[in-house]
Structure formats: C-alpha cells, structure tokens
C-alpha cells in the first residue's frame, strides 16, 4: 500500500539530506575566502565546475542502482539486491581508479576550458588533482546510496549524507583554516570525508549481507544482468549529458546578452537549483516506490506512487515559488551587493520563481522512469525536449531577449515533464500486462 505517510517517510529525510550539499559549497567558499586571495577563490569555483561536470557524468551509479535494487526489493529477491549492489560497486571502483590516475589530464583539460589566467589555473589544477584522488570512494558512495534508496531507507540515506557532508565541512575548516592549508586543505577535507563515508556505508552493507548466502562470481558476472545494467546506465548518462549541456547553453546565451544579464541570470538560477534540492526528495521517493511496484507487479501501487509523489511535489513547488516571489528581492540583495545586478534580477524574478512549478513534473517523471528502469524512454524524451528547447532558445531570445531566454527554459522543463507523462499509460500497460488488477480497479 502506497500512502502519503510512506511517500513522506522517504522524501522528507532525503530532502534534508540533499539540502546539506549547498552548505558544503558555502563553507568551502568561506574558508578559502579568509585568505583574501581572489585567485584562490577563482580556482575553487573553476575546480568545482570541472569536478561537478566529471562526477555528474557518473551519477547513473546512484540512480541506476536505485531502480534496479528497488525492483528486486519489490519482488522480495534479496539475492538480486545484493548482486545489483556488487555490480554497481565494482563498476564505481573501476571508474574511480581510472579518474584518479588521469586526474592531471582532467585538470589540464579543465584549465584549457576555463582559461582563467595563470594564478587561477594553478589553483584550480591543484584542487582538481587532489579531489580526484577520492574518485573511487566518491563513486562507491554513489553505489551505496543507490542501494540504500532502492530499499526505501530514507533515514539511513539521510545519515550517510549528513556524515559525508558534515565530515567534509569539519575537515575543510580544520585542514583549510585551522592548519592553514588553504585551498589544498579544502580539497583534502573532501578526500577524507568521502573515505570515511564509504567505510561506514560499506560496513553497514557488509553487515547486512553477512546474514545472506554468499553469491558466486558467476552470478555477479551474469551477462544478461550486466547488459541490462549497462543499457540503463548508458541511457541515464546520455540524459545527464544533455541536461548539463542545456544549462550550459542557457548560460552561454545569457552571456551573449551582456555581462549584466549573465550576472543577474546566475543569481536567479540559484533559486532554481535550491528548488531542485527540495524536489529531488520527492523524485527519490518516486524512484523507490515505482521501482518496488514494478518488481512486485503491482499496477495500483505504481499508479499510487506516481499520483502521491507528484501531489507532494506540486505542493512543495508551489510553496517554493511563493517564497521566492515574496522574498526574492531580499534574497537577491543577500547574494549580491551590486545595485545594477539587483535591479536586473528583480525584473526577471517571476520567471525564476516559476521554474519550480514548470519543472516539478520533469523531476517526478524522471524519478518514476528511473525506478521503473524505463531509461530508453527517458533518454529519448530528453532528446526530444532538447530539440524543442534549442528552437525556443534561439527563436525567442532573438525576439524577446532575456525574457525569451527564460521562456525557453520553461519550454524545456515543461516539455520534459509532459512528454514523459504522455507515454506513461503505454508503458504501464506494457509493464503490467500480466499483472492482476485489484477488484476496485476492475470496477
């Protein structure tokens, strides 16, 4: 039975967990800012961009694992849960080791892309190379969190995220500020925090698996299962690439409209990103509950998962939009002291506030499709929405300037949500074709 309480038991802890991430960025900036060196701050910002781009590519290790584990959990198949985790864990360690080894090359490519001047480039390279040392641990944490969320253990997920980000904040302050290591101390703080979180998380998982029969290597290397995992992860990775590129295009087109517009849009995009942290909690609930329903063959439970998680997603998005509309000017003033940027941002504040509402269906449907492992549909609808977005981006921006640019972003978000919603009934009929309908549905 999927109830409001069950949805909230997963969504609320994970919303709180996701909200700890911005605190980490604020802390790192504050620590480095104490040294009064603009180049160090520039290196931190540039390094964070490079690092986020690299690791966003492999976010499928979290989301793909959640969907596969959730379906196994719904079937009551503990062996399959264990197998999906170990496959994801092995892939994460392999990719992580490669990333750590090629860290200098990634830092060099990032320096060429950012092109921030000698001092900024040197700081950025140092930061990226150190942080990539933790790649095996960071990606392992993706697999661990994916397994935990696949089982719907929101409170355990909250604990692991608070442990990770809390340790990161504490270590960054201690190494960077107290010991005076500066930017390198912040980077090493992340490395040690990822290591601590991976050790704790893996210990919890191993203790649980210790009560289950040991899986033979042949089962873990099952070719059909590996092909399924690769296909799901490949589609999610393509979807993530396109999403990142869409936001990069938004920033680029804003830059074409002038430095002031670029700065104002950058300030306003913070509201959309923060709204995303709130909405991700309910998308995570949709992932787990939809995946569990597919695994159990329960059509009604699947429909209830979509309906209830979307209800709470829309309610929260409306609340976030209202807060931004009412207090947006004060929030903008807190972020920047530049009067011209404040004025420009205020003019486009409603467009930014309403992204939470226009984007909520995209967040929720992404969660549903990840849980159901309908990754190919999610990839295809993302590509379709991106084509519509590009057409709107260049067409509306040419006609209406920055207003057109924000309108294009709304087109992209709405297109993603509606396209996935439109094909949802077809996928449900296909997936639950052999599942029995409860008496109330037959009526």
Automatic annotation (TrEMBL):
Q: Which Pfam families match?
A: MatE
The cross-references to CDD domains, in alphabetical order and at most eight, read: MATE_DinF_like (cd13136)
Is the keyword Nuclease in the record?
no
User: What membrane topology is given?
Assistant: Multi-pass membrane protein
TM helices/strands, residue ranges: 7-26, 38-61, 84-114, 126-149, 156-179, 185-206, 236-254, 260-279, 308-328, 348-369, 381-400, 406-426
Keywords linked to the UniProt accession: Membrane, Transmembrane, Transmembrane helix
Q: Which domain of life is it from?
A: Bacteria
Ion transport recorded as keyword: no
Subcellular location(s) of the protein: Membrane
Where does it mainly reside?
Answer: membrane
Q: In which family does this protein belong, per the annotation?
A: Belongs to the multi antimicrobial extrusion (MATE) (TC 2.A.66.1) family.
User: What is the protein's given name?
Assistant: MATE family efflux transporter
Query: What organism is listed for this UniProt entry?
Result: Aquibium pacificus
> What does the record give as the organism's lineage?
Bacteria, Pseudomonadati, Pseudomonadota, Alphaproteobacteria, Hyphomicrobiales
